[in-house]
Amino acid sequence: MKPKEIQELIDFVANSGLAEVNIETEQFKLNIKKYPDVVASQAPVYSLPQVAQQAIAPAAAATNTAPVAKTEAPVVEAKSNLITIKSPMIGTFYRSAGPDKPLFVNVGDEVSAGKTVCIIEAMKLFNEIESEISGTIVKILVDNATPVEYDQPLFLVEPK
User: Fold this and answer.
1) Both 82 and 155 in a single domain?
2) What is the mean pLDDT of residues 110-126?
3) Phi first, then psi: what are they for 92, rounded to 5°?
4) What does pTM read for this prediction?
5) Fewer Cβ neighbours under 10 Å: the N or C end of the chain?
6) Does one domain contain both 146 and 75?
7) Residue 89 and residue 144 share a domain
């Protein structure tokens, strides 16, 4: 099963009334469970200036995403010609195939469509993530061996 198919199945379960889906074949076993939404309570804010209140409210309501993606968002807006390579799934981001292996890409490297730029481990499966565009890697937005979310920006690429 391909990563895109797994993500489509996850999206289907999330949007349907199903609570759990189990798929088992000779090659793999897949179990997707939908947990009830957890509502976080917001701590009261006592006599803070208006600017501080505006900064705290979005932070308290935000989901648990990698802070790197939030700090890099202004860079994308400043250089609108850059294209973002995003994570197609939830998992752990790796820049190389192993600790003693060379990195797939570095800042300044030329990539072409179809070239592997990283690996994302999901459920003990290592999925090679390929570039869909040709260009130059301008910035790597995620640290090695850190968790990533679906659709999280991974790389900024300046197209050719």
Assistant:
1) yes
2) 93
3) -110, 130
4) 0.51
5) C
6) yes
7) yes
82: domain CATH number is 2.40.50.100
Backbone angles phi, psi at 29, to 5 degrees: -130, 130
Please tell me whether residues 75 and 29 are part of one structural domain.
Answer: no
My answer on whether 81 and 2 are in the same domain is no
Task: Find the domain containing 7 and state its range.
Answer: 1-36
Give DSSP secondary structure letters for the chain: --HHHHHHHHHHHHHSS-SEEEEE-SS-EEEEEPPPPPPPPPPP--S--HHHHHHHHHHHHS-S--HHHHHHHHHHHH-TT-EEEE-SSSEEEESBSSTTSPBS--TT-EE-TT-EEEEEEETTEEEEEE-SS-EEEEEE-S-TTEEE-TT-EEEEEEE-
CA dihedral (11, 76, 69, 74) in degrees, to 10, reads -130
pLDDT digits (tens, 9 = 90+) for 92-104: 999 999 989 999 9
Place of tokens 């060379």: 102
